[in-house]
């Protein structure tokens, strides 16, 4: 039975498309459900009587802190998982176990440091992120409680990558499904029934994340896991941590720069438009998180398949996986763009019924999401770089789109011809066109050339069968 299970997780066999979809579909559902943890909070909070806009803006100010926590989960979770898959593909289970164990230890260590540090510097951070005297109490109330569950978040987001990397996509989906369903139940209970408002949303999230974290640990230390998490494999090894961190820097930088962009956008919008526009950006960020999930789900589902086949020297299968990921990402983001363009009223009303937010939010949403289809190229390129262990390329293009393009444009464009808030929303589509094109073009040139060279070397090293006379 054990042997059969291992064979079923061999990504070098069978259809490349089926292997990817077998992981991507449950991973996409898992990510969608995971995003609902925070998005559902915003939907409920946006409908609190009398204080909905201020409360929604307050929770939006807490988003950069949540994003920073996610960044560290990506650093050690997404950094370790591809290395774990490559080791499995190369038939090195002991090394794979050590990679997983070291990732787990670093997730716990960084989680403890983050929770304490963010709590100590909470007030200056929130005002730096664009809080006003009106919205600070809401942001502070939410984030103070949310930080108590930091370790739960780190385990969920970081270690779930290793469940998926072993081929247990459905189990990975259940990891977040359990907590998310509980969050859907607890949110209205704590917010409205117990009349705890924004604090109730944070408490509901902590409880839900805690239960999901227990599920992850139960599976990875149990008999069903192909490679188990143990105390022995969790002993820190500097050399492995260096490898994990180097590869995880791409996802880390992407999340950190997302957080930096959120901070700059909120602060700039507060300056040119006030609390209302910070609330609009909270809605836009929520929509962006949801609409990019299928693309990130497919990209993340493709990574173990790409990494495993690269480790197994199946280079044609690696190229097929990259092509499938790219085509799907482009098609889906075109459809998403069309839906957002034609139905913005419906989307915004999910979060708030305030007339001012609806009136100003629609043109802002049209501007921000124009060019989202070009983001698909960025996701595809990043996925290939990470899966093949090309850490430097992945980190550079993470920095290019957000840190080098979006942040300077967010600061500069509002000063041009008095564009104000319009300039803030324009920065994103411009970065999508420039960053997406650069990342994908570089990936095609470098990765395809590398795979051809590896294929040629592999062919030359095969033993030749002597001809019969």
Which terms summarize this structure?
469 residues; mainly alpha; 18 helices; globular; disordered N terminus
Describe this structure in words.
There is one protein chain. The chain is mostly helical. The protein has one domain. It is built from 18 helices and no strands. α13 runs antiparallel to α18. The longest helix has 41 residues.
Compact summary:
With 469 residues, the protein is mainly α. The protein has 18 helices and no strands.
Shape: globular
Q: Spell the H/E element sequence.
A: HHHHHHHHHHHHHHHHHH
Oligomer: single chain
Mean pLDDT: 88
Q: What is the CA-atom radius of gyration, in angstroms?
A: 22 Å
Number of strands: 0
**Structural class, judged by helices and strands?**
mainly alpha
Give the % helix: over 70%
Strand content: under 5%
Question: Which SSEs are present, and which pair or pack?
Answer:
Layout: H1 2-8, H2 16-45, H3 52-89, H4 93-120, H5 122-128, H6 136-146, H7 150-165, H8 169-193, H9 197-220, H10 238-272, H11 275-291, H12 293-311, H13 315-342, H14 344-351, H15 355-369, H16 372-387, H17 391-412, H18 421-461
